[in-house]
Amino acid sequence: MYNLIFIGLYILLMIGVGVWGLRRTKTLDDFFLGGRCFGPWVTALAYGTSYFSAVVFVGFAGRFGWNQGLDGIWIGIGNAVLGAFLAWIILGKRTRRMTHNLDVMTMPEFFFRRYDMYQMKPFAAMIIFIFLLPYSAGVYKGLAELLVGVFPNVPFNVAIIIMAALTGLYLILGGYFAVAMTDCIQGVIMLGGAIALVYFVADASPADGVVSAVGMVSEKYAEHSAAGSVNRGPWYLLPSLVAMTSFGCWAMPQMVHKFYAVKDESIIIKGAVVCTIFALIIGGAAYFTGSMSHLFFNNLGELNVKPGVAPEDTIIPTMLVNYLPKPLLSLMLVLLLSASMSTLSGIVLVSSSAIAIDLYKGVVDPKVSHRMSVTLMRFLSALFIAISYFIATHRISFIETLMSLSWGAIAGAFLAPFIYGLFWRRTTAIGAFSGMCSGILTTVVLFFTLDKSLASFGACMGMVVPFVVVPVVSLFTKPVSQKTIDRAFSVCVK
């Protein structure tokens, strides 16, 4: 009963925000950037909630909390310091300024205007649309596994449909304004829920509180390691996962998009602090909860795993359903629903923009009206959600594997060309394009040749290779016009 009440109230709130956003969304700029009017708190929470989804709690935290023990917390710390704080400090001001100077709204537009190479725009747009699909599917799958665990009579496909319909509703109605406002609400819910999660899971365990749980987890993890119940993997697996999930977000369109929409550069420092604290609490809570699985299970064989589902993906759902009080379980459901929907809305928004703004408006019909562009984005948002649904229903094992493919391919394609484009004037169009191709090729080849447990390592290699390719090729190819460089690197603050 508690579950239905909490979820029902949450759904009504999200719909209300969507209707509010509909009244404020008149132009394409309104729909995609919310009128570029957001301050530090809204932008920081929008960034943070897009960063963490149910995939972190259900997929990553369960798997790496079990296999790495307390060392898994380093992933959360790395995400906070590298993926949040450094991203804001290094990228925030420069990204906002250059996107304003070049008058761009999307990542593909940035590559086109920065490098004066028209082909980069449709190429980048297709990369975004194709490779964000498995990311979105992974998020759907992660939360659906939990919902089915709490409501065993609800079919897996129905659980995904409910999520898809709700996310699509407020996004299609209110665009980025609705997304940003709901992200704030969802961020507050996530903070409260994450703190409560750690406390009550520790309370339900044999340990005497959170402090005692730390020592007991270490002891149990050592026992389970000796018994062969964990698979720690090679030494480079954990660092590669930290690098993939931290530095990868520097070039993820749905993350960088948040910097486009801030109202001025003065909010960057405040936003960095808020976002870092948020990421530290959420990431730390997720991976610490995953490590506490050693207090409840001796091996993964104790889990009731359904066909087609990886045992690691059921760890957190099983702990929540079996050991949390019903009212708190309801709060956790809303927490994970919030985390997932905030991530999904950002993914869907940038994916639909890749087709509507970068391909259709940028290639097919440059004179299309703003009204038609908004209508097309709404249609494409619905289409993207539908395709993600079909991918998720295939019950692909290991949520983390889906995420590694998406992050690796997109970050591999965009990270080096984006960073060099922001900071190195000598970066050429051919150099940037070569970096894109080498990054995505490296990621895809390693994904299909390495063991799937090493997917995060393959993703890291896809990010590293372009950082060599871009400058080498740039030194031997024609520079971008001085007019474009002067415009891009102008220090005039708008």
Structure description:
With 494 residues, this protein is mainly α. It has one domain (2-399): Sodium/glucose cotransporter (Up-down Bundle). Helix content is 77%, strand content 0%. It is built from 19 helices and no strands. The chain has helices spanning 2-24, 28-33, 40-51, 54-68, 73-102, 107-115, 120-150, 156-204, 209-226, 237-247, 253-260, 268-291, 315-323, 326-364, 370-392, 399-423, 429-449, 455-474, 482-488. α8 packs across α15 (370-392) and α17 (429-449) runs antiparallel to α18. The longest helix has 49 residues, at 156-204. It is globular and about 65 Å long. The N and C termini lie far apart (52 Å). The model has no long low-confidence stretch (mean pLDDT 81).
Rounded to the nearest angstrom, the radius of gyration is 22 Å
> How many separate domains?
1
Through-space gap between termini: 52 Å
Total E-strand runs: 0
Percent helix range: over 70%
User: What is the strand content?
Assistant: under 5%
Average pLDDT reading = 81
Task: Tell me which oligomeric state these chains represent.
Answer: single chain
